[in-house]
Write a structure and sequence with these properties.
- The complex is a heterodimer.
- Chain A has 17 helices and three strands.
- Chain A is mostly helical.
- Chain A has two domains: 132 residues, no CATH class; 218 residues, MetI-like (MetI-like fold), CATH 1.10.3720.
- Chain A has a three-stranded antiparallel beta sheet with strand order 2-1-3.
- In chain A, helix 3 packs across helix 5 and helix 13 runs antiparallel to helix 14.
- Chain A starts with a helix and ends with a helix.
- By secondary structure, chain B is an alpha/beta fold.
- In chain B, a hairpin with a 2-residue loop joins strand 9 and strand 10.
- In chain B, the strands form two sheets. In chain B, strands 6-7-8-3-9-10 form a six-stranded mixed beta sheet, sandwiched between helices. Chain B has a four-stranded antiparallel beta sheet with strand order 2-1-4-5, with helices on one face.
- Chain B has twelve helices and ten strands.
- Chain B is globular, with a radius of gyration of 19 Å.
- Chains A and B meet through helix 13 and helix 14 of A and helix 4, helix 5 and helix 8 of B.
Chain lengths: 429, 284
């Protein structure tokens, strides 16, 4: 080698230097694009969450009225307590409190009844039924205002709007103001939203049934999808011969992960309901369908977790004389466990938010109670959101947003669990 | 003979029954009268269509270190992995020919690879302790083979670590993770794991190539001590190492066994010109 060949001519140094500026500028632009992309993504997220929170937070405040009601012996027959109209009794007591005279047509009575939830009358009925001695006495009942009345206090019905365009007229609004001023109406945290199930009356509707339904469905989905998915993945990754059949299976699993979820609903309808006779709209049925949907994701996540275990660990175990099953159970699977768990939890979180396949299997029914078993009709959170969103009463719209908030909290908790599991069990080798 | 049943029914080492059943170790002329432990004949290995070993025939003596040397890709590791059938785990790999340990063919259909690998331990290039405690690493083989009851396990673990020269360094932290040790310590831990089940043969696939010179010297010392009890086959890239630790050397080239003989003779007076070229550093 000669010196002439090793030395770079000075001219070329200058060429490199001249290009440097352009290179740095390019790099800065590239970083800028990345930042812009993140800003766009975050702002969409902020708008979405902001809208939901703004629309839904008012659900967590409720307005309750307490009314002293005289149980008139002339109106309530001890022999037939259920025959008495307690809603009218409540309304008349409120009218007395407000000093509103009754008119011949009963218009004022109707207007007051439109402000009071029938939960008040229902409470009275229960109390008097339990203890008929209450007849002739005055009981103070406390219960929610009707949803429209609550919307006025929440500022969603405005006095300055045209009377004909709102559900409550000026007189009703002034009564509400008076009740508030006298302290008969108080506001507080809406516990009923978490202790009640769905109802036709917005002020009495809650998410308990949907939460319990979702939890039952989720647990069953995990019980079906995780063992089957992990076993399938372990077999494919560790035991199956690599041939044309396993290639076909692998391609099909990857395809199944991309199948639209509503197709799984159709499959569930045909196979589980029509053929196997699983009770429709039950958590069991929902879980079977969602497990089918989650299965490909669990398999793919488990396989990639198994692939990430270094082959040296398998060799070490085999070389000491462990059988293939022992190698997998003692070494490979424990090391893959964080990945398996994270993948499973994330696919379950996905299943938790799934609506479309459940609509196909009849989980859209109005279910006013908490499901007592896995074969009883139930609803789940995303379907509850769907049902309320379609309701005509305006007060259901804030409940829709509130149910979404509950669903999102569940999702965040599950994702958090996935992160914690990963942190806790992550090992180095 | 059903080796599997013999092994499963007894709780002592299977070798007792094995040795009684097969012919006594033949003395090989090639080994200068020393007993033969492993005899390979007509070994051909294919990876799919590609042939990796051609008609290899080699006798390996008992209680001696045999070094397999040769340039990269010459088939020495492939041959080593035939002895404990680790090639079974590679898809598309076919092994033809006979490899006998004490006269019994390792490729016999009736022989469970699990039993074979309990008799033939292996140490790999990269230290691969299990991500478990030091104690559990050594005890693992005993546990899966059911070779020791609970009270014996501790003693055997201690004895194995002592023989591997690691006891003094780890006796106070047996429950620390095996991967917390240094590379050289990990390799000795892996050797302790292999000898805990009391194998007859130990295969070593470039055991020092990931270690520094001091750790290498330590392992080489250990190999020399272990030779009195085990038949050791070691693959190495380092000619100096082969010269230091082995009594016999086999030189592989392009999938063929070129030459095998006493190490001192081979390094001073190779018969084949390719061996000469390799050990003098002309290629490889």
């Amino acid at each position: 080698m000669t010196d002439a060949a090793t030395a770079v001519p000075a001219v070329r140094h200058n060429t490199v230097e001249a290009g440097l500026k352009a290179r740095h500028a390019k790099e800065r632009r590239f970083v800028l694009y990345g930042r812009l992309a993140i800003i766009v993504a975050l702002s969409f997220l902020a708008v979405l969450l902001g809208r939901i929170v703004l629309q839904g937070y008012s659900t967590f405040i409720d307005y309750r009225v307490s009314v002293p009601v005289f149980i008139d012996p002339a109106r309530v027959d001890p022999a037939d307590v259920s025959g008495a109209n307690f809603d009218v009794l409540v309304a008349q007591s409120v009218m007395k409190q407000l000093a509103v005279p009754d008119d011949d047509l009963g218009q004022n009575l109707d207007k007051v009844m439109a402000l009071m939830s029938n939960d008040l009358g229902f409470q009275l009925l229960q109390q008097v039924k339990a203890d008929p001695h209450l007849i002739g006495r005055t009981i103070t009942v406390k219960g929610p205002l009707k949803a429209d009345a609550a919307l006025y206090f929440k500022g969603q019905i405005r006095r300055d709007s045209d009377q004909d365009t709102r559900k409550l007229d000026d007189i009703q609004l002034s009564w509400l103001d008076k009740l508030k001023a006298t302290g008969a109406v108080t506001s507080g945290f809406n516990t009923a939203f978490f202790t009640h199930s769905d109802s036709t009356e917005p002020e009495q509707a809650g998410v308990l049934g949907a939460v319990v339904g979702s939890l039952l469905t989720l647990m069953l989905t995990a019980a079906f999808a995780v063992p089957v998915g992990v076993m399938a993945a372990v077999y494919l990754e560790e035991f199956a011969p690599k041939n044309r059949w396993t290639d076909v299976i692998e391609v099909n699993i990857n395809n199944l992960a991309a199948v639209p979820s509503i197709i799984y609903g159709l499959l569930g309808l045909a196979v589980f309901i029509n053929w196997l006779g699983v009770p429709r709209s039950s958590p069991l049925l929902g879980a079977l369908v969602l497990a089918l949907m989650a299965l490909p994701t669990v398999i793919i996540a488990t396989r990639s977790a198994l692939k990430a275990v270094p082959p040296s660990i398998r060799e070490a175990a085999l070389a000491i004389g462990a059988s293939r099953t022992q190698t997998v159970l003692h070494h490979v699977l424990p090391l893959a466990m964080p990945g398996v768990m994270t993948g499973s939890i994330l696919s379950l979180a996905h299943a938790l938010g799934e609506t479309a396949p459940l609509l196909m299997i009849g989980m859209i029914a109005f279910v006013p109670g908490v499901p007592a078993s896995i074969t009883e009709a139930a609803t789940v959170l995303p379907v509850q959101v769907f049902i309320w969103e379609n309701a005509s009463e305006r007060a259901f719209h804030e409940r829709t947003a509130a149910a979404i908030i509950v669903l999102l909290v569940f999702m965040i908790l599950m994702n958090l669990a996935a992160i914690l599991v990963r942190r806790r069990f992550e090992r180095r080798w | 003979m059903n080796l599997r049943n013999t092994y499963n029914s007894g709780n002592s080492m299977p070798s007792d029954q094995l040795e009684a059943a097969i012919q006594p170790a033949a003395a090989s002329e090639a080994l200068g009268g020393a007993p033969v432990k492993i005899a390979a004949r007509d070994v051909n290995v294919f990876y799919g269509e590609k042939q990796a070993l051609f008609d290899v025939a080699l006798d390996v003596g008992a209680q001696a270190v045999t070094a397999l040397i040769g340039p990269s890709g010459c088939g020495k590791s492939t041959f080593l992995r035939c002895i404990n059938r680790m090639n079974d785990t590679i898809p598309g790999c076919r092994v033809l020919g006979r490899i006998e340990i004490d006269g019994a063919d390792v490729n016999d259909r009736g022989l469970d690879p699990v039993l074979l690998r309990a008799r033939v331990g292996m140490v790999f290039q990269k230290p691969n302790p299990f991500p478990k405690s030091i104690f559990e690493n050594v005890a693992y083989g005993l546990r899966i083979h059911g070779l020791a009851n609970k009270s014996e396990v501790g003693d055997i673990v201690e004895a194995s670590l002592k023989r591997a020269g690691l006891w003094a360094e780890v006796s106070d932290r047996l429950h620390a993770s095996g991967s917390s040790l240094s590379g050289g310590q990990q390799q000795r831990l892996v050797i302790a794991r292999a000898i805990a089940v009391n194998p007859e043969v130990i295969l070593m696939d470039e055991p020092c190539s990931a270690l520094d010179p001091i750790a290498t010297a330590r392992i080489e010392e250990l190999i020399d001590e272990l030779r009195t009890q085990y038949c050791i086959v070691i693959v190495t890239h380092s000619m100096a190492q082969a010269a230091r630790v082995s009594q016999r050397t086999a030189f592989f080239h392009m999938g063929k066994l070129v030459e095998a003989g006493r190490t001192d003779e081979m390094f001073t007076n190779p018969r084949d010109s390719r061996t000469q070229d390799y050990i003098t550093g002309r290629f490889g």
